């Protein structure tokens, strides 16, 4: 095969991707339709990032909870660089070696019976929409869906319809899915039905959801979409008892249970949430974030007995991109070879133990939620009233980053008709490669930043 000739010198191309002028940084905002920070990250290694000023940060967000095996992972870099020399693009209908091997590898890790896979290069929103379409393919005439309050499933017009009222994304009216209704999420710390004792809880919120679905639906119900552990809404795990009863009920009523595991895949110390929920399985589950090894990828996984799409129903121009499959394939094997699921459980338990100790000393820590390295700390001004400490949480984030070089995450802002705003959950979600020393450093900074932020109250 004929090789193309080089047109540019190495230093020319390197200049395009490594040199930034202050003027370009200053003026680029005027040319962009979307806002972004003035801080530019130029390099990453392991759990650390370096910005354009040379300052280093330990990143407890894994940059949108995505770089689970660390930044600039050398094995991923090698796999992608070798693939880019061979082939960078094919049409969606054409398989490639990385695509075939990725599907086989992922299917070997999925919960039993969930083996049919569709992959896109657009991320979680597209994976969710594929799940909705697949549900309608397999339940003809059913187009009514239910999703949960505080849930988030993407920024397309359809997926925003499925989401809760997040401040900043409320300018758009429901689009397409006018048959989407919300049911209350089992948020035990702020129980939607006022239950204060978890031991005496009779899953009243589930009974309300079942009643709304059974008697409030004018049309045939297709499915229920949920995050098993909510991410943007505040790192809230569905109680295992709730999930067990929900699964029994959806099966009995032939309603598809769709899981959005966009943030959960490997991050909770298991490949899939099914392992955390003692073998409970959905009908369809969706992945993104880490599954592409740092490259864009969305995955929809369905029961093996379900009918699939035809060639026109689910495809995208870049959905067969061999680079993302090469990266994702290295990612899956790296998680196994490096025993990162075990490390995730160990470091998550260690950090959580330290947080529980700190909670006894600080009246501002209302609730601590995990599992694994999907850790959320809900800050409150008063433990009795549980008034959200929004300013305290945002101050802690800024202090930790600016003063101590650690980047923590912050829950999405949720607004209500009463005008209340909840943005008080600090997130600790570093790459799964962190060491015990990293965990100690993270907790040292969290404690210092919390103390400093309290002084601003």
Give a written overview of the molecule.
The protein is built from 14 helices and 20 strands. It has 457 residues and is of the alpha/beta class. The strands form five sheets. Strands 4-12-11-10-7-5-6 form a seven-stranded mixed sheet, with helices on both faces. Strands 13, 14, 15, 17 and 20 form a five-stranded antiparallel sheet that branches. A four-stranded mixed sheet has the order 1-2-3-16. The model has no long low-confidence stretch (mean pLDDT 94).
What are the SSEs and their pairings?
Blueprint lengths: L9 H9 L3 H6 L13 E5 L2 E4 L4 E4 L2 H4 L8 H13 L10 H11 L6 E7 L3 H15 L5 E5 L8 H6 L17 E4 L20 H13 L4 E6 L2 E2 L5 E2 L2 H13 L3 E5 L12 H4 L7 E4 L10 E6 L18 H16 L2 H22 L3 E5 L5 E8 L4 E2 L1 H15 L1 E2 L1 E2 L3 E2 L5 E2 L2 E4 L7 H19 L3
Parallel strand pairs: 3-16, 5-6, 5-7, 7-10, 10-11
Antiparallel strand pairs: 1-2, 2-3, 4-12, 8-9, 11-12, 13-14, 14-15, 14-20, 17-20, 18-19
> What name does the CATH topology of the largest domain carry?
Aspartate Aminotransferase, domain 2
Q: Work out the count of structural domains.
A: 2
What's the overall geometry?
globular
Low-confidence stretches: none
Helix percent band: 25-40%
CATH homologous superfamily descriptor of the largest domain: Type I PLP-dependent aspartate aminotransferase-like (Major domain)
What's the CATH class of the largest domain, please?
Alpha Beta
Strand order of the largest sheet: 4-12-11-10-7-5-6
Total strand segments: 20
Largest sheet: 7 strands, mixed
The proportion of residues in beta strands is 15-25%
Q: Give the helix tally.
A: 14
Let me know the average pLDDT.
Answer: 94
Q: Using only CA atoms, what is the Rg?
A: 23 Å
Distance between the termini: 68 Å
* Class of secondary structure makeup: alpha/beta
CATH architecture of the largest domain: 3-Layer(aba) Sandwich
